[in-house]
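User: Predict the structure for this protein chain, please.
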Amino acid sequence: MKTLILTTAIAMMMSFNLSAAPEGIKDSANMKVEIYQTNPESVDVYVAKTNDDLIKIKIYTETGSKLMVARVKKQSSRHIRFYMNELPEGKYFVCVEKDNETISKFTVNR
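Assistant: Here is the predicted structure, written as C-alpha cells:
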C-alpha cells in the first residue's frame, strides 16, 4: 500500500513539473520570449513579436533599482546580449515587459 501511494505521489509531482514552463521562457499566440544564460558573464534575450507591440527589456538589482532599459518596437524579432561581467556580485533580474506588465522574468546570480 505504501508503495502504491508513494508511486502515485511521485507521478503527480512529475506531471506538475512537466507542465510548468522554465524561468525566462514565454510562448503565446503572438509573442515568444526567451531569456537564458549560456555563460556567467552574459544574459541573452530573444523576443519575437508583432511589429506594433512595444516591448521593454529591463535589468534590475535585487533592491529594485533599474540599471538598464532596452526597447524593441520596430523589429519583429530581436536578440540582445547583456554583458553582466562588470557588475558587482549579487542578484539581478532581467524582465521583459509589455504595457508595464511583466511577460517574462529571469534571475541572474553573479
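Residues 2-19 form the longest helix (18 residues).
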